[in-house]
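Supplementary Note 3. Input sequence used for the single-chain structure prediction.
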Amino acid sequence: MATAVIMPRQGQSVESCVITSWNKKAGDTVNIGDVLFSYETDKSSFDETATVAGTMLAILKEEGDDVPCLENVCVIGDPGEDISGFLAASETKEATEEPAPKADEARQEEAPAAAPTGKLNIEKISPRARHLAEKTSADLLKAVPTGPNGRIIERDVRTLLENGFTVSPAAKDGYTSATEGTGISGRVTTRDLEAKPEEKAAAAAPAESAAEYTDVPLPNIRKVIAKSMHASLSNMAQLTLNTTFDCTKLQNLRASIKAGGEKQGLANITLNDMIVYAVAKTIGKFKDLNAHYLDDKNAIRYFSVVNLGIAVDTDRGLMVPTVFGADKMSLNELACATKTLISEAQSGSISPDKLRGATFTISNLGSLGVESFTPVINPPQTGILGVDTITRRIKEVNGADVSYPAMGLSLTFDHRALDGAPAAKFLKALCTNLENFDLLLLK
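The predicted structure, written as discrete structure tokens, is reproduced below.
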């Protein structure tokens, strides 16, 4: 019995996913566990594996399609099975996703002089439309798309046939939408492909030099980041405060944990883990920074729990997974949770539900040698902490100049939600806790 494979729902906040690649094609044998296709949400990527064995009878969605969750993507079954019901359902869905054209628009589309698409994009043709065009030799370059998002669907191919727009199999590889057919009923033939004098001259001209640039479409995650960051800077009154603290004790304690922590069953606790822990234990006393500014309600939502977002650099772009309830965790628990989230984000397998819900975010560029920067707030949060690199500074101790390691912190806050003094007080309290991290662990 033929079985439809649907687009899974990855997280409660996900409405649709984009198919990035197919591992199987129509006619291929499918075994349980085989990867059928890969797909992605705004920030995560996944592989869909087969739960039934058989033959790939039909692929209903193409690479690049943005497919609503729970919608049919392909059909697996036995060769020769009737799958017309699945194909009809898919075509009906495509035809009804957008409003039908008005009467005058419909008449224009049916007219032989309607503007063609000009070029053929395989991703913009439905499987049924492509199948019909292959059987009838319809000239798809002259099709006027009426499907959703400029997609050519079956009725567009039938309109081509009604108007006599066809092309011979031998001429398919060499013609353009501007080629006029001189065959029977306007059919494009190989005779129509004979180059005109000006075309021959153009072909004999020296080839143009290699392009000096390449235009690459933005991936989904870059679009999301761009939209979010632009909205953040456009809609907020952002201000950044910079300070440093003496990280001598912090470095010494970290070295001690690294040397003997494994014997005590501790994770590989890093300086970043210790900073995350200090923030989680400090920010609860500064409610204006552990909050969301709600533009649509003209209100501020204060949280009684600390959910820390950790900015992570990945091959696909910036991701910010959330450590929920960070203020309730021990240093070791927090270190383990943070490393798991970072690993999932970098592998692209993280659930979208773990990329939302943060009440405050930490972005660490210290390992890249950045001494100071202006982190951008993730709306609707009211603040974000930037962690800078360690530099050597001089301070006076008992009348003598002493060199010490200083770590920089950059706090960006939304001035609509709080003023500079409360933000500065948070930074001061955080620096005190970091300089006395051993005492913070006792609280």
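The chain is about 30% helix and 25% strand. Confidence is low (pLDDT under 50) at residues 98-115.
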